[in-house]
Design brief:
The complex is a heteropentamer, with two copies of chain A, one copy of chain C and two copies of chain D.
Chain A (H helix, E strand, L loop, with lengths): L1 H40 L6 H4 L1 H9 L9 H32 L7 H16 L2 H12 L3 H25 L3 H8 L5 H30 L1 H6 L5 H10 L3 H29 L1
Helix pairs in contact in A: 4-7, 4-9, 5-7, 6-7, 7-9, 8-9, 9-12, 11-12
Chain C lengths: L4 E7 L8 H15 L2 E7 L2 H9 L5 E3 L2 H10 L2 E9 L5 E9 L7 H6 L5 E4 L5 H12 L12 E4 L2 H9 L5 E5 H10 L1 H4 L2 E11 L2 E5 L4 H13 L5 H11 L1 E6 L6 H17 L5 H23 L1
Parallel strand pairs in C: 1-2, 1-3, 6-7, 6-8
Antiparallel strand pairs in C: 3-10, 4-10, 4-11, 5-8, 5-9
Helix pairs in contact in C: 1-10, 2-3, 5-11, 11-12
Chain D lengths: L1 E11 L5 E11 L3 E6 L5 H8 L11 E4 L2 E5 L2 E2 L3 H5 L2 E4 L11 H6 L8 H6 L4 H13 L15 H14 L4 E5 L7 H18 L2 E5 L3 H7 L2 E6 L2 E7 L5 H8 L4 H27 L2 H10 L2 H6 L1
Parallel strand pairs in D: 3-9, 3-10, 7-8, 8-9
Antiparallel strand pairs in D: 1-2, 1-4, 4-5, 5-6, 10-11
Classes of the chains: A mainly alpha, C alpha/beta, D alpha/beta.
The structure holds adenosine-5'-triphosphate (ATP) (2 copies) and magnesium ion (2 copies).
Amino acid sequence: MNSVDASRLGSTSASVASKRSWASMLGWIALFAVLGLSWQSADMRPLDLLRDPGNMVRFGRDFFPPDFAEWRTYLHEMIVTLAVAIWGTALALVCAVPCGLLSAQNIAPVWIAQPVRRMMDACRAINEMVFAMLFIVAVGLGPFAGVLALWVHTTGVLAKLFAEAVEAIDARPAEGVRATGASGLDEIVYGVLPQVMPLWISFALYRFESNVRSAMVVGMVGAGGIGVVLYEAIRSFNYAQTAAVMLMVIVIVSLIDLGSAWVRERVI
Amino acid sequence: MNSVDASRLGSTSASVASKRSWASMLGWIALFAVLGLSWQSADMRPLDLLRDPGNMVRFGRDFFPPDFAEWRTYLHEMIVTLAVAIWGTALALVCAVPCGLLSAQNIAPVWIAQPVRRMMDACRAINEMVFAMLFIVAVGLGPFAGVLALWVHTTGVLAKLFAEAVEAIDARPAEGVRATGASGLDEIVYGVLPQVMPLWISFALYRFESNVRSAMVVGMVGAGGIGVVLYEAIRSFNYAQTAAVMLMVIVIVSLIDLGSAWVRERVI
Amino acid sequence: AYAETLNFGIISTDSSSALKQRWQPLIDDLNKQTGLDVKAFFATDYAGIIEAMRFNKVQIGFFGNASAIEAVDRSNGEVFAKVKYKSGEAGYYSLLITNVNSKWKSVDQVLKNSREINLGFGDPNSTSGTLVPSYYLLAKNGLSAKTSFKSVLPSSHEANLLAVVNDKIDVATNNTDMLDTLKAQHPDRYKEVRVLWKSPLIPSDPLVWRRDLPQATKDKLRSFFDHYAEKDPREQAIMHAISGYSGFADSSNAQLVPIRQMALFQKKEQVQSDAHMSDADKKTQLATLDQKLSELDTVAAK
Amino acid sequence: MDAIRIERLSKTFGNGRKALDSIDLKVGTGEMVALIGASGSGKSTLLRHIAGFTAPDLEPSHITLLGRPIQQNGRIVREVRRIRRDVAFVFQQFNLVGRLSVRTNVLIGALSRVSLWRRLVGRFPTVERELAMQSLVAMGIGEHANERASTLSGGQQQRAALARALVQRARIVLADEPIASLDPESSRRVMDLLRSLNEDHGLTAVVSLHQIDVAMKYCARTVALRDGRVVFDGPTDHLTPAVLRDLYGAAADELLTDAEAAERDAAWENARRAERVQARSNEASAHSAAFASAASAAGS
Amino acid sequence: MDAIRIERLSKTFGNGRKALDSIDLKVGTGEMVALIGASGSGKSTLLRHIAGFTAPDLEPSHITLLGRPIQQNGRIVREVRRIRRDVAFVFQQFNLVGRLSVRTNVLIGALSRVSLWRRLVGRFPTVERELAMQSLVAMGIGEHANERASTLSGGQQQRAALARALVQRARIVLADEPIASLDPESSRRVMDLLRSLNEDHGLTAVVSLHQIDVAMKYCARTVALRDGRVVFDGPTDHLTPAVLRDLYGAAADELLTDAEAAERDAAWENARRAERVQARSNEASAHSAAFASAASAAGS
Ligand SMILES: Nc1ncnc2c1ncn2[C@@H]1O[C@H](COP(=O)(O)OP(=O)(O)OP(=O)(O)O)[C@@H](O)[C@H]1O
Ligand SMILES: Nc1ncnc2c1ncn2[C@@H]1O[C@H](COP(=O)(O)OP(=O)(O)OP(=O)(O)O)[C@@H](O)[C@H]1O
Ligand SMILES: [Mg+2]
Ligand SMILES: [Mg+2]
């Protein structure tokens, strides 16, 4: 009797399952269709990679050995870059925390979350160069304009990442806090933040790192920095110097990455 | 007696707590010191923002009304951009999943995780322009070189974000899978992926979106795309056109953001 | 007929913004009239195109003067033509500009009081933003960008122009093309700009091909560019649309000589001011630079 | 005034499962009610509705706590957060914040009495910290105060959740299987404390339980659910083998013996109840005063 | 051959807490052992060590399962994943994958018998799907197969975790408070099934329990822990009030009565044991065959 039971239940469930798998089937088909259509627009020619691999090797060889003759300049520019990135990220962090929370669907009501999300979309989507120019006319050329431009863009990115981490939390601990009659703010501070902290820290440090790399803005507002040095080196085809600068950037990025792991383990 | 108990326990715990709060105090001091030192290097002059706000308004007004006269061109270029971003992201995704898992400390042993992490750091840190040129010399100018350059960089970013999402999972379900004698792969497929999927999807779509915006590389390698149009509009002070292009980008970014929310809700 | 495939790299240079839809008609005409199969690529930076040319992934390029030097030296390129302006001018000018309301009324004032001045400069490889003013404006007057001013902020032409219009910088370098664009787009802003100094003529942007192109192809290209937009009003309209050009003129690597001189001069200055280089190194480097400069002088004298 | 009043409450989940089916229920102030029923019968769902965590079906229905409506016709009222201050909830799955220390988890129960800046920086007043310590000690996990909640054993987590509820000093306690993971001695402590709060300080308690014997011992009234419907509501003594058979399925031969034994025990219990009120562990009474709601103390 | 053999096992956690203190323990093949002890006494920690989830202190120690070492001197062996196939573990907190369906959660128990590509795409063979359904039905949650594990009630989750363990067809079952969240009837079902597997198919079972009466009823042998030390190891009948008082603290006046009652029950139980073996719900025996380990069946 039990095995009959089992198979009957099995069959009804199979029909439910087949409905789900139909939907996912359609999803896959759509995905492959999009990939297929983009193939041509993106002019994919994978075989070309095999045709002239020697070129890559020849090009790559120019980077060795790295030329550290100007390391003092690099170090100085690196410090400027770090300073701009630190302030750009710090200001962004201050704005991204409330904006991120307000655009998380499981925290803010939809009529707040959606407008905030769209605003953050705009912060990300509007070209950094435009923001840079906007701030040039207000505060003139210099690192400060770079800080401001990075700030707006980074806020947009971090708020989005923050919000989506919040949306993926385990609801139970937050509910535990809510059960005590705590306010919404308490619920966030005690129920949500402890859960998302490791991810938030890793996002913030990722954006910091990527602000260190984002030479475009910083260069265009006349703030100098290692990114500008790097572009100069590339544009003057001085690949040995390029390699030296990139090695420094790699070291910094690795340090930030290690720091990220360390902080996440420690503070949390 | 009990209250005595309580206070005694309270005091021992207070000393432990004070040790912890000392450490965190030091952390805060270090943080503020760094911010303070960077203040000068970043040439922070917040008051300047208030001095000429009129300039910003005047500058901002030039963007209105947006000029959609050339919308056909924009649309065409947008499609090229999307295609390049789609393939760049798709290829990156394929690599980032294994690399991300291998660099998660709670999955891979440290002697695998660390080297993979450093490799990913390099993928992010090495300038996209260098990768673009590397691929140009192999496959020539065009969208395909852009796809390849985006691929390497995006792999570096996604692998990092993926890994840190994996490090933040709840260990219990994965342990539940492990308890059945499942292999490491099974543990990942059944215990880890279901937990990280919502975040992974949001990361992948965030990078897709940011690849749509990362016009630099694509434009640099002569792949065309909306980014080149945007730069040209900015450089020729054609702000009405700039606004039109940016609005299109905002719409696309918003659509991707909405899609991200939809997919995360549905598929998971 | 056999259609040879050529890649044509076009970059946005100092003096033009390369808009795909503006160039494409010219490329179409090129294909039609020569029977070649030319594919155009538009890039925002010259580095990729020059490397591509070095590895023979690009055969023809449209560059700025400074980048053309790289194409010639690095990528086996050769200047074979340059654009002509409608005004009949064979080039454009580097400028030093300031806001109309600033207290600096003349270039002499600026040169005298350079210690009090914040200078907006061009990015280091810019011909009109950096090379020309450092040589003709500063070096000739015994000043140096690095040491003679209160501060120097290297950035792009647009950023400099904006900063001047909004009176956020004392003086800045720029060029006539940029100013013309501003005049066309925002006449009111243009009125905010005062030109303090105008450089000698900078040759207009050159076309470069790879030296090893088959002679037959070269001939086809040359005859096309020589005669393009000579009479046909449609072709003239296309040329004008690109960036106010009127056609092409023959040119050669010689066009680059003055630019080379400036670049070498700048290099020399760098070497001299380099605090970390040993004196012996300095001497040998300066000697080679001087030799190169004198070689150029003889070429120029011809 | 009734502490809890529920009218026509129904809940159908997104997947079509009807977890509650027009429940009507009144719990008077100072009552201690056992909520029993087979696994999946809707106990947790009912408790969650009472505290306003889940919105019921959009049909005419009504839940009032201490005279204040918490939801009406499927819509949870806006001031629900205020009302919850008077209601302590012990979750079946504990719902602790794993990354915070046990102490902080317990102090969360005191949040509504603490000023904003103290809450934000996490500096709780000494009196609250002492209360938190007291409640941890009462639960027998005082020495774990500084550990992370996630490192506790199952039973310790359950007791930490109870400690949090105690610190809240609420007038109503809703406890979802609060002794499921506890050993007999800890269970006794917990139930004694609840009873002391209930008897001495007028706390209203609804406790979902699987142990019929515990229900018999501690709760005068029992509400039994089956498939989301109330199938029994009355004095615990009146629980008959028939009712239990109905609750837990027909196959339960042994359950009947168990139930009978329990009934036997209950009779014996009742006989000794008078002495108990005194004899009941002094410990529980000693503790309970600290956790009694100031409001209810004033009221009674 | 002993099913489980533990020598000098100690565990000190990062925060300095000594959870296990030189444990020595042998469990023969086909034994059914109850593990009791106060909350926090180290039951879960011990079980987790047996399955190799936690590495003990780096001191000479030894755990062997079915003759194969699982850890030696604090180092877990490399082939631990293989060995775990023969050991089913039921976690105190269930450890289900909340986002997967109940069915998939249960099928995870069958992973080690399924080919690689099927595991990767999630297409399990029909025979395994049927076994999974059978085990869900045996646990009484067959109709929840397609729901997400996270939407189940507490007791349903616990039964889903048990179903997963059943599907594994292991030779040893380590169950950590498997009936904590279950109603009496479901508890009986689960324990009957375990007993049937144990008696009819030679399964070795170690079950941690808080309910002394259940231990008395189902397990011939009991191991009691206090503060990480084994304080009693012998026939369950020999559990004396003194032992229980030692286990659960000295204050427990009532516990003694409970324990005495339990003893009374146990005596009565033992008397009826013979009839039981037959009379025991046929349902359990009917089910158990499906979940018996093929290996042990062949062996016995
Ligand atoms: N990861 C950990 N880190 C620190 N301490 C731990 C950890 N896990 C358990 N402990 C401590 O070890 C002791 C034993 O815990 P364990 O979970 O084995 O108890 P238990 O007997 O299972 O209790 P319960 O019946 O409450 O589940 C407890 O005091 C607990 O706080
Ligand atoms: N979020 C949900 N979505 C869908 N169904 C749910 C959800 N929560 C509970 N259910 C279903 O509602 C029914 C009642 O669940 P509930 O948790 O109230 O049971 P319970 O009486 O507390 O059981 P237990 O004693 O096992 O905790 C169950 O069948 C359960 O599967
Ligand atoms: Mg429940
Ligand atoms: Mg335990």
